[in-house]
Amino acid sequence: MLKRFFKVGLALIWVMFVLSACNSRTESGDTVPSVDTASVVPTPEPKDTTNKSTLVDTTKTQEDTKQVETDKKGKTIHVTIEEMKFNPETVEAHKGDEIVFTNKDIVPHDITDEKKSYKSPTLNPDDTWKLKVEKSSNYYCSIHLVMKGKIIVK
Fold first, then answer.
1. Which one of 1, 5, 66, 143 has the minimum C-beta count within 10 Å?
2. Interior CA angle at 68 toward 65 and 71, to 5°?
3. How far apart are CA 35 and CA 58, in angstroms?
4. Does the pTM exceed 0.70?
5. Alpha-carbon Rg of the chain, whole angstroms?
6. pLDDT tens digits, 109-143
7. pLDDT range class, residue 16, cuts 50, 70, 90
8. Residue 151: enclosing H or E segment and its boundaries?
9. 3-state secondary structure of 12
10. How many other CB atoms are there within 10 angstroms of residue 33's CB atom?
């Protein structure tokens, strides 16, 4: 009788273990909804209605590609911070151009000139910071010293 009780108890524990493993819950305890991928329709990108033309440098690899917007005031150069890198790492600009740094990483970063002539505030994810180009400089992230970039003024 004791053997039978022991076997039934083990069987119940095993069934409970299997059922709990099959229960789909997140860390917060919410159930995970199922998604029918056949019914997913991609959302179209919004159309740019500004009068700016977008130039993409296709002579470099994707990670070196920079996007430049031109308008009457000169140009705005975009540098993205992601995966612990400045992209592009080297930027060519003219005096008076503007560089917009955007943090697309999951951790905070900053932009600090090696000669300390400028320093951004700490940029949290999705924050931006604008720099008016005055002269060539080397910069880095003072939070992550391995991250470096360069501005070359033509």
1. 1
2. 170
3. 37
4. no
5. 27
6. 999 999 999 999 999 999 999 999 999 999 999 99
7. low
8. strand 148-153
9. helix
10. 6
SS3 119: strand
Which amino acid belongs to residue 46?
P
Q: What is the bridge-based pairing of β-strands 90-93 and 137-140?
A: unpaired
Structure tokens at 30: 């919410």
Judge if the upstream peptide bond of residue 44 is cis by omega within 30 degrees of 0. Answer: no
E strand or H helix at 138: strand 137-140
Residue 123 bridge partners (DSSP) = 109
| Close Cβ partners of 118 (under 8 Å, ≥ 6 residues apart) | 111, 112, 131, 137, 139
